[in-house]
Amino acid sequence: MATVITPKKACTVNPLKMSQPIGSALAFMGIKNCMPLFHGSQGCTSFGLVLFVRHFKEAIPLQTTAMSEVATVLGGLENVEQAVVTIANRQKPSIIGISSTGVTETKGDDVDAYIKLIREKHPELDHITLVYVSTPDFKDAFQDGWAKTVTKLVEQLVEPVPAEAERLPNRVNLLPGAHVTPGDIDEIRDVLEAFGLEVLALPDLSGSLDGHIPDDFTPTTLGGISLEEIADLGRSVHTIALGEQMRDAARALEAKTHVPFTLFDRLTGLEPNDALIRLCAQLSGRPVPLKIRRQRGQLVDAMLDAHFHFGGKKIAIGAEPDLLWSLSQWATELGAEIKAAVTTTASPLLERLPTDEVLIGDLEDLEARAAGCDLLMTHSHGRQAAARLNIPFYRIGIPMFDRLGAAHQTIVGYRGTRNLTFEIANMFIANAHEPHPDTWALPKEEGHAGTAAVAAH
């Protein structure tokens, strides 16, 4: 059992953590024709906008209520009203997702009351859905903002369904965590569809931030799950939640619609994917397809080939709790040791991590603990630490701004796990110390010149 440590540093150095509003905005981007809106200053929104543009290399829809110092003190009703009306008239979204920031939370703006007043004053906006989520960035972290937003979407937008209602037998819901990439969602969907199952993902970044080019320009999100599909989630036969962070959302959906759920704390590795395949076979009533069986065999062979290179390797990981859990469990199953584990926020999983201690800290803490490791795994801000420590560096998580293809990085399923295993094993092979004649030399002893000296003669 790991010891969870929260440092008492005066300030964060080289932050690992991304804020709650960023996670909330990303969740809203998985909804069709949505405009995320930060209730805060322009700087808060500019930071998030630049971060997402650099990571996804796409046009990002994100607006702001542009709170000034005076507006913050007096209250933000006028700013929220003006922002909502302007967005409605110009961008014409189906939904506006409002996320609070530190400045407005400190003031204590009652945004739910603001929305009620705006509804009364502007009945012409009744066709636009407004969802507000409290996400102060002075507490919690990226995955917390995502999880709160998905839970609020379920509570506010899903239609209640009685327990005895008829279900669609071949349709399942997918609630992916903030650590799940568009590529991961596509991979999970491929697996489920191989069993003849239809999938509704909330949020669905694979439809909005997968890098596709639309036929026409739109100022809102380019795709994702529609409001009609969200409302209809209660008619599915089962819900699959991915990541401990999604437990509250899955429970909220079950309470409202009586749809049972299964939570997978990870889908990176052999055992959890076997459990997913068993569930798919049970839900569909079909045997496991040949291509899925073949993918499993390929993963087992990859693990067999790679474990020689993972055995005894020391790895340092800095990531959100659910991503940290996935990577740690997968690496230790292949024989590696988690020497350093740093995360951003509290989670029930932290005490169960396969390491001695877990630190809720920053990249300075990770660098201090990663000395002597064989690999550093974190987002792109860890590149300087890896260079100073002179150890291999694997980029994973958000933001990944100095490489292409972040949205398509896939580490779930048999195929995703296989590819990740090969990728990391190849890094270990590339950085292995090649033997040379000096390596073979016998130790010099009195009366013995040693093989290197003999070879010199």
Commentary on this structure:
- The protein is an alpha/beta fold.
- It has three domains: 121 residues, 3-Layer(aba) Sandwich (Rossmann fold); 127 residues, Rossmann fold, CATH 3.40.50; 133 residues, Rossmann fold (3-Layer(aba) Sandwich).
- It is built from 18 helices and 14 strands.
- The strands form three sheets. Strands 1-12-11-10-13-14 form a six-stranded parallel β-sheet, with helices on both faces. A four-stranded parallel β-sheet has the order 3-2-4-5, sandwiched between helices.
- α1 crosses α7, α7 runs parallel beside α10 and α12 runs parallel beside α16.
- The protein starts with a strand and ends with a helix.
Short synopsis of the structure:
Residues 19-428 form the Nitrogenase/oxidoreductase component domain. The protein is of the alpha/beta class and 457 residues long.
Number of helices: 18
Quaternary structure state of the chains depicted: single chain
Can you tell me the residue ranges where pLDDT is under 50 for at least 5 consecutive residues?
448-457
Q: Class by helix and strand content? A: alpha/beta
Strand content: 15-25%
Query: Major beta sheet, specifics?
Result: 6 strands, parallel
Radius of gyration over all CA atoms, rounded: 25 Å
CATH class group of the largest domain? Alpha Beta
Give the CATH superfamily of the largest domain.
Nitrogenase molybdenum iron protein domain
* Distance, first to last CA: 57 Å
The name CATH uses for the topology of the largest domain is Rossmann fold
